[in-house]
Write a structure and sequence with these properties.
By secondary structure, the protein is of the alpha+beta class. The protein has eight helices and ten strands.
Length: about 240
């Protein structure tokens, strides 16, 4: 099946065979074929994402043992519609990130992203799931040419970061996190402004920020900046060792 893909990186990282079902659609016949393929290949975990507004696929996925682990929300903004609504109540310095910042940002990573589907799904090792984000941030710093990385500082101390990427004339928000000691000060909106300005300077016309339903703080920041919800999707995981 062409929509089924073995995920080598994920499999090596977590230590067991993982695959992903693309296409976003599922019928009973497809689900049976997917099960056969996964069992033949020895797959332990299967990822699958579908539109929240596809009740038939959602129902079939649940019938076949797929479990919802995350609700993904995709927010979009035309650059021309962007509005900056700073909320910071303290003096925040914003600059582009440097590789020397990494060691000070990793502790912020460790206390962030509690609603990742890998954290929510307790079949994954929690420490490995946290390490996933450490690697993601490290690779962003090492990428050549660098993707945009902006950091925030208060009194010279790193308290947050925002990373992104650019494909054609589209900017994509990747990772944003603020230290637990500095939340509620509007730092997220200032970081957002920095990366939007970066996108605009590179000719970006539209910005896409994926987030999830539990991240209320980020959704509030994006809404105030003019972002609109473009789609809502459900992430499913299916574990095959439970059914052997």
């Amino acid at each position: 099946m062409e929509d089924l893909k073995y995920l080598e990186w994920d499999s090596n990282f977590f230590g067991f065979p993982i695959a992903r079902l693309d296409g976003g659609r599922l019928t009973k016949e497809m689900a049976a074929d997917v099960d056969l393929w996964c069992k033949t290949k020895g797959i332990r975990c299967l990822y699958f994402m579908t539109d929240f507004l596809d009740p038939s696929t959602v129902e079939i996925a649940q019938q076949f043992g797929y479990k919802v682990v995350n609700i993904r929300i995709e927010l979009r903004l035309r650059i021309q519609d962007y509005r900056f609504t700073p909320q910071n109540k303290s003096v925040v310095e914003i600059r582009q990130g440097e590789i020397s910042d990494l060691e000070f940002l990793l502790p912020i990573v460790d206390e962030s992203f509690p609603y990742s589907r890998f954290i929510i799904d307790r079949n994954f090792d929690a420490n490995r799931s946290k390490e996933l984000y450490r690697i993601w941030l490290r690779n962003t710093f090492l990428k050549v040419p660098n993707d945009p990385i902006y950091v925030s500082l208060i009194d010279g101390r790193l308290v947050g970061f925002f990373t992104g990427s650019i494909t054609g004339d589209t900017g994509i928000g990747e990772l944003m996190a603020v230290s637990s000691l500095a939340r509620g000060k509007g730092i997220g909106s200032v970081l957002l402004n920095a990366i939007i300005n970066h996108f605009e300077s590179r000719g970006v016309k539209e910005v896409i920020f994926p987030t999830h339903s539990q991240n209320i703080a980020a959704q509030r920041i994006y809404a105030e900046a003019g972002f609109k919800t473009a789609s809502v999707s459900l992430w499913f995981h299916k574990w095959y060792d439970q059914y052997e």
